[in-house]
Amino acid sequence: MLSRIAESLFWIARYMERAEDTARILDVNYHMLLEQSQQTYRLRWEPLVYITGEQDRFFKLYSVATTQTVFEFLGFSQDNPNSIAQCIYRARENSRTIRDRISREMWQDINSLYHMVSRFRAEEEIAVGPHRFCSTIKFGSHRFHGVSDDTLPHDEGWQFLQLGRALERAEMTARIVDVEYHNLVERRTPDEKPDNHQWMAVLKSVAAYEIYRRQYHSRIDPEKVAELLVLHPQHPRSIRFNLAVLQSSLRAISGSAPGYYTNEAERLTGKLHDSLMYDRIDEIFARGLHDFLTDVLATCREIGDHIAHSYFYYSASAA
Amino acid sequence: MNRSSAASAQEHLLHGYDLGAFYDEMFSAPGVPRPHYAKVLDGILKMTATEFEESRQLADLSFLLQGITFTVYSDGRGTERLFPFDLLPRVIPYSEWERLERGLSQRVMALNHFLRDIYGPQRILADRKIPRALVLSCRHYLREMIGVKVPRGIYTHIAGIDLIRDSATGDYLVLEDNVRTPSGVSYVLENRLVMARTFPKIFEVCQVLPVDHYAFELGNILRSISPGQARSPVVVLLTPGIYNSAYFEHSFLAQQLGIELVEGRDLVVDKDVVYMKTIHGLTRVDVIYRRIDDEFIDPLAFRRDSLLGVPGLMGAYRAGNVALANAIGNGVADDKAIYAYVPEFIRYYLGEEPILRNVETYICSRPDHLKYVLDNLERLVVKAVGESGGYGMLIGPMAAAEKISEFRDCLKADPRNYIAQPVIALSRCPAYDPRTGHMAGRHVDLRPYCLFNGDRVVIVPGGLTRVALEPGSLVVNSSQGGGAKDTWVLRGES
Hints:
Chain A is mainly α.
C-alpha cells in the first residue's frame, strides 16, 4: 500500500472522529444548558472550546463564549480548521484523492455527507439549536464506519482507518476528562454541590451514560466517571480501549508477534496500554489526574509522529 | 398511457423542433426519424415532459453523489460542476460503425508507424513524403526520444480521434488526433451506467453494444509492455493530482484497472529504476500509464519547475527499465499541421487508401496557403497547431474584427504555429434544453477511444459524443460549455 494512501486513510478517520466528537459535546452541552440558569451558561460553553484545544483561535475571533459563538466556531467556522464543517470537508478531500482505493460505497457515503453538511446554513442552525446539525454528523460518522467495515477489505488500509479513529478518540476522551474534571471539581468553591447534571452530560457526550448506570448503580461520582472513561476495558470511547485498538492495528500492519515490537509507535502504545491495564484509578488520582492525562496526551502525539515516520515519511532510497 | 396522451407528450418534448440547415442525426426530414433512432424515440417520447425532467434530475443527482464532477478553482475552495449530460443518446447503426472502426484502426496504426519512424530511421523524411522542416520544427518533437526503443514498438497505446459529421455531405471527417493523453473515456463508461439505470427498458429493446470491456483491454496492453521478465508486472497510473480537471477519470480508471493511482511524490528513481513508496518500503514499478504531459513528467529532462513529475524518470525510460503509456514525444503526431499529412502516412506505411477523410487544411508555414488564409480569415477557422481543448482558436465568421486582426498579426509573426480550415457545419442532434423544457438541435462530435496492442486496434463501440449545449455554438469542449451524450452502437443491422 502506498504511503500516501495509508496516510489519507489515517486522516479520513481522524477528521471523521473529530467531527463526531465535536458534534457530541456540542449537542449534549446545549441540551443540558436548556435546564440551567443563565449564570452557568457562559461557564459551560468555554470548556468546550478548551476541549478542542482551539481556545487561542476562538478568543481572537470572539470575546465571549455563548451558544451562538461556540456553535458557530465549532460547527461551521472556516477560520477554525477543526470546525465540524472543515473536518468533513477535509475528510472528503482526502477521500477524493484516494477514491480509487476506497469502496464506491464509502466514497458515495462521505461525498453525500459532505454535500449535506454544505447545505446547512450557520444562522439557520443556530436559530433552531445544534441538535439537527449534530445528529447529521453523528449518524454520518456512524454510517461511515459501518459502510467501511462492510465494504472495505480488512487489510492494511482498513487498519490505518482504525489507527486514525482510535488515536483521535483516545486524545479526545483524555481532553474531555481533563477539562471537565478541572472545571467541575477543581474549580468548584467549597459550598457548591457536585453537579449531577453536568456529569451526566459529560457521560452522554461520550455515549457512556447507560454503561455508567449499569456498572456503578450510584449517583455520579467524578472519580468513577474518570475510571470509566480512562480505564474501562470495553467501553469503546475509553482511553484504554482505544490504546488496545491502536496496539492490535499496529501489530496487524507490522506483523509483530505478541510480546515484541517493530517500531517506536508500537513500543509507546504497548507501554501506555500496559499502564492503563494495571493502574488503578486511585493510584492515578494519587499522582494527580491532570498530570497523568497530560502525559497520556503527550504519548498519543508521539505515537502519531512515529506512525508518520515509520509509514508515511521515511527517507526514500532503494536498498 | 393511451395513444392520444403519448402523442401529446411527443408533441411537447419535440415541440417546435427545427432541423435547421444541418444534417440532423435523428431526423432525415421534419417528423421523420432515421430508422436506427426509431426505438429510442419511441421509448423516450412515451414519457411525459415531467417524467423526462424527473429522470434528468435523478441522473444529475447520481452524478453529483458519485462525485463525477470537474472542479473549477476560482473561490479558493473549489466549486464542483457536473459535466452536463444529455439523456437523449446518440445512435449509430452498426454498418456505419463498422466503417468508422476500420477507418480509425487504419489511422491509429499509421500514426504509430509515423512516430516509430521519425524517432527511428526517419524513412518518411528521406522519401520526402512530409517536409523535414515541418516535423523537426514541431515543438513537441522531442530529440530526447530519438533512438529510444519503446517496448514492443508501441507509441499510441491509447488514441482519442475526434470525428465530426459534415452537414454538407453527411460524411464523417477526422477533426483531430489525440495521441498524447486523451481524456473522457471515464464519461463513456459512467454515462452508460447512468443510462442503463435511468432507461433500462429502452436499453433492452435497442440492443446496444457494450463498452465495459475497455478497462480489461487497456489492462492487457499495459501489462504486455512490461520490461520486467517473469514476475507479475507492477502497473501504476500517474496523475498530476486532485487539482487536475481530469482527476476523476484518473482515479476511476485506476480503480477499474485495479492498479495503484500514484502522484509524482509517490515515485522515486534510483539507479534508473522506478520505485513507489509503500508503507513497507520501496516497490519496483514496471509500467506507468501516465496522465501527465511530456513537459512536466521529469524535471531533470524537461521543465525544471515541474513539481508534478518524477526526477530521473526519463533516464529509467531510456534505459528500458520502465514502460510508459503513451510514449513520450507523441505530441508531434497531434500537431495540427502534421495532421494534414496523416492520409499520406496511411498510403505510405500501410499501402492503403484512407477510409476516413481529413478536413481540408491550409498549412500556414506554406507561403501559398498563408496568403490564401490571410485573404480569407473571415471565412476560415484558424487553430494553433499545438493546442487542444478548443483553445487558441479563431472562428472567422463569428469573430469580432479586433480578434481577426489580432490573429492576422499572429499568423504573420509565426506562420508555423497555425493552420486554417473551412468552417464545417457540424451535424446536430436533439438535446434537452432545461430552460424551455423542449428538445432543440445542438451540434455534436464524436471521440472514439482506440487501444493499440501492437498488432491490432481495439475500439469500444461508440465513444464520447460531445454536444455544444449553447444554442448555435460549435464548441463542444467541457471547459467551454460542452456536455456529453451516451453513444449507442446498435447490435447487428438496425
